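Repro:
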Amino acid sequence: MNKLKLKQQLEQFFVEDIGDRDVSSTIFHEKQAGQIDFVAKADGIFCGEEIIHTGFSMLVDNVEIEMHVHDGESVTKQQILATISGNVAQLLQSERVILNLIQRMSGIATQTQAAVSILNSQHTKICDTRKTTPGLRMLEKYAVRCGGGVNHRYGLYDAVMLKDNHIAFAGSITKAVEAVRQRVGHMVKIEVEIETKAQMLEAIEAQADVIMFDNRQPEEIKMWIQEVPDTIVTEASGGITLERLADYREAGVDYISLGFLTHSISSLDISAKVTIE
């Protein structure tokens, strides 16, 4: 995780929430001390340790932070996740933004861990997509890793994915791969999305780096993939749910990308309990 970027993002989030001042915390005297415990209200996978450390350190003078759990670890209902001590007004100014983020990140980690467990494969890895919350991609993709998944491309800038519209515009898979390879150089991988066996064979001939089987049934993939050289990475995606995930266990792909890891999750319920000293 890029800590400089994280700090910049947290600053924006705090400015949005606090504005010019926290009018509620004017009830506390200037040096009033206190403590906040973050407590899990459900079982899951924790994610957000760096959010807690960086966020509270930005706003709370002489803050003391004790983590009782670390990223990627399982937590149970009523478990204390972290204890933060310092100026109570500053703690309360920081708490909601930080809590919102770690609840969402922990929800993603929990969802990812569930997918990894259901797939239960030594070969195929679960990965995410670009279907992330604008502004939170770095954090959400980190949460996927904490849940045992791996990351797909981060954006339009780090890998090529040629979809049906790209291919239609270029005229064919072969022309699309040739055109993009001339422009991006040898360091950028090229993935081609296919829906038919003929498209798969053309992508192989064009020497794509990755072939994605889009909205294909596991039985189809298992038959077709036998013709894909080991030098080409394979991926399945499109319409794959938790309920159907186990059906793809024997399909033979290297990766299964799941949009719902980040776009359809429930945040892990975590509460903040405040003690005034």
